Amino acid sequence: MRNIPIVTKNLLIINIIAFLATMMLEAGGVDLNSMLGLHFFMASDFQVWQLVTYMFLHAGFTHILFNMFALWMFGVVIENVWGPKKFLFYYISCGVGAGIMQEIAQFFSFYFMIKGQDPSIGMLQLFEVGHQLSGQLNMWTTIGASGAVYSILLAFGMIFPNERIFIFPLPIPIKAKWFVMIYVAIELFSAVGTPGDNVAHMAHLGGMLFGFLMIRYWNNHPSGNGYGRSKGREFFENLKRNFDRRSGKSENSGFSNMHVHKGGAKESDWQYNERKKKNQEEVDRILDKIRRSGYDSLTKEEKQTLFDSSQDR
């Protein structure tokens, strides 16, 4: 847990606490899923804030296990690339977007269900019927972090499309971009072919859709901090550069050669190696800070140091 960045770690903790609280309160007759889960907007128990709270609840151990495993597996990487603030904004926004897509899907389900019983009912009458059935519509409740987690999966596939990952039960590694496309195809097929399986497939697709639009916008309107694939390459290239430096230290020592430092000042091999050692220690510290808190946590001086070190290569 010490090596998990702060937002991913706290999201894991909150989800686990909410799951344990749900089980304990359920034993006392309190249904936390009914209170904080996302109800259909025509239901009497619907509240706007449920668009946020629903993503921290889960229906069972398997449900939370797979969601939290995926959050840990991919969230650690994405948060280290974007930093905690942008990662949290992306996660919550996509979770809300997934909830909105689920509401839209439920609306059309309700429309076709009522239309099938009485073809003469128009749109205005539909809302009147929804008001009359608001109590029964409370049964349509959505819970789970899947929509937000699927958006993290999509982000990994867009930032590192050619990274190979092992996914059970496939016997060979698969590129992240193909893995994401397979998941999208499965969800589309499931949404159309198995509408009554009690799985919010449209929420999953909605999280990925909002994530896709957000990342595309960031890529087309890059800010000073940067987003997307270029930032991901920078993150891994910095780590690789740091590894190369550690494994390829200079074997020269003494005063046999002179080096010209910036500004024209001359320095011996010993002075050169000592300066490079100090610079490397500072770069190592900055890279550790990026791993813990993300690139956005760096000061202006630290970013400049990292930039200068890349130019020296």
Strand content of the residues, in percent? Answer: under 5%
Which oligomeric state applies?
single chain
Point out poorly predicted stretches.
249-261
What structural category characterises the helix and strand content? mainly alpha
The largest β sheet comes out as: 2 strands, antiparallel
Q: Can you describe this structure?
A:
The protein has 313 residues and is mainly α. Helices cover 66% and strands 4% of the residues. It has twelve helices and six strands. The chain has helices spanning 6-27, 32-36, 50-53, 61-82, 84-117, 123-132, 146-159, 176-193, 201-220, 228-247, 269-293, 300-312; strands at 38-39, 141-142, 164-165, 174-175, 258-260, 266-268. Strands 1-2 form a two-stranded antiparallel ribbon. Helix 4 (61-82) packs across helix 5 (84-117). 30% of the residues are buried.
Concise account of the structure shown:
The protein is 66% helix and 4% strand.
Secondary structure elements and pairings:
Blueprint: H1 6-27, H2 32-36, E1 38-39, H3 50-53, H4 61-82, H5 84-117, H6 123-132, E2 141-142, H7 146-159, E3 164-165, E4 174-175, H8 176-193, H9 201-220, H10 228-247, E5 258-260, E6 266-268, H11 269-293, H12 300-312
Antiparallel strand pairs: 1-2, 3-4, 5-6
Helix pairs in contact: 1-4, 4-5, 4-7, 4-10, 5-7, 5-9, 7-8, 7-9, 8-9, 10-11, 11-12
